[in-house]
C-alpha cells in the first residue's frame, strides 16, 4: 500500500544568480520503485515552473502530491506550470495528483498550466474539471461584500440614468427652440408617417378593446342597478367613467404597448447598427431627426384615439342597454349627453395629452440608451413599455388627487 511506504527526501540546493533564481531538486526514493525526480524552477516567489521526470503513477503520485503541497503552500502563487516533457509514464493516479494539487495550492486567479501534456491527460483533466460538483459556500463577509457592490452598482446606474434623462430633456428643449427659429428643419413627412403608424393603424385594436370594455361595464353595472329600477343610469356610469378615467388610461396603455415599444425598438436598432453615429458624423441632430417627429405625432393622435375609445365604449354600453335593459337608443343617448359636460371631456383629453408625451419620450429615451448586441433591442422595448405603464398609472393618480382637491 502507498500509505505504508517510507520515503527519504534528499534536498540539494544549487545556487545560480544569487538572490534571483535557484533550482530545487527533490529526489524521492521508494522501495521497489525506480528513482523519480522533479525539478522546481522558481523564477520569483509567485512564479513557479515544475519539471516532472520519470514516472508519475500509482507508486509515486501520493508522495509527489504531499511533497509539492508542503512546498507550494508556503507561497502565494500567481503562476504555476507543470512541464511533462521528461515524464515517461503518467496514469490516472498521476492526473488525480495534479488535479488535487491545483485545488489545494492554487487560488482562482492563479495561472495554472500543464505544458507538453499528452492528449489522454488533457481529456482526463477536462473530465475531472467538468465532473467536479463540489460547491463551496461563500464566507459571510464575501456575501456582504457582494451585496454592497451590487447596491453600489445599482446606485451608480441610477445616477447615470438620471443624468442621461436630464440630458435628453435638454436636447428636446434645444430642438424645440431650433424648430421655433427654423420651422423648415422640422421633418413634416416623418410626422405624417408616424401619425399613420401610431394613430390610424391603432384604431382597430383601440376600437375593439374599448367596445368590449364599455359592454362589460354596462353589463356588470346593470346587474345591480336594475334591482332598483335605475337601468337608465347605466348610460351615465359608462359615459363618465370612460370619458374622464378609463378612456385615456386604456388608450395610453394600448399605445405604449404598440407604439412606445416600436419607438424604442426602431431607435435602439439604429443605435446598435451605428446609424445614429452616422447621423452625427453627417451633421444631423439625432433628437431632432428621430425623437421630435415621433413625439409630435403621438401628441396629435393619442387624444384623437382617446375620443374614438370613448365613442366605441359608449356604443358597447348602448348595445347592452338596448338588448338587455329594455332601453331605447334615444333615451340611452340622451342620458349620456345629460351626464357629460365640457369639463369632463377636456379633463380626459388633457390626461391623454400628458400620457402621449410620457409614452413618446420614454420610448425614444430607451431607444437612445440601448447598447450591446441584438438582445438590447428587446430589452429597450420591454423597458419602454414597463416604464410607460408605470408613469401612466402614476400620473393618473396625480390627476385624481389634483381633481379631488380642486373639486
Write a concise synopsis of the structure shown.
The chain has about 400 residues and is an alpha/beta fold. It contains 12 helices and 6 strands.
Overall description:
There is one protein chain. By secondary structure, the protein is an alpha/beta fold. The chain folds into two domains: 130 residues, Transcription Regulator spoIIAA, CATH 3.30.750; 250 residues, no CATH class. Helix 1 runs parallel beside helix 2. The radius of gyration is 38 Å and the shape is elongated.
Order of helices and strands: EEEEHEHEHHHHHHHHHH
Q: Give the integer mean of the pLDDT values.
A: 80
What spatial order of strands do you see in the largest sheet? Answer: 1-2-3-4-5-6
From the N-terminal CA to the C-terminal CA, the straight-line distance is 95 Å
Shape, principal axes of CA atoms: elongated
**Residue share in helix:** 55-70%
Low-confidence stretches are: 1-36, 133-143
Main sheet specs? 6 strands, mixed
Q: Oligomeric state of the chains?
A: single chain
Number of strands: 6
Structural class call reads alpha/beta
Number of helices: 12
Rg, Cα atoms, Å: 38 Å
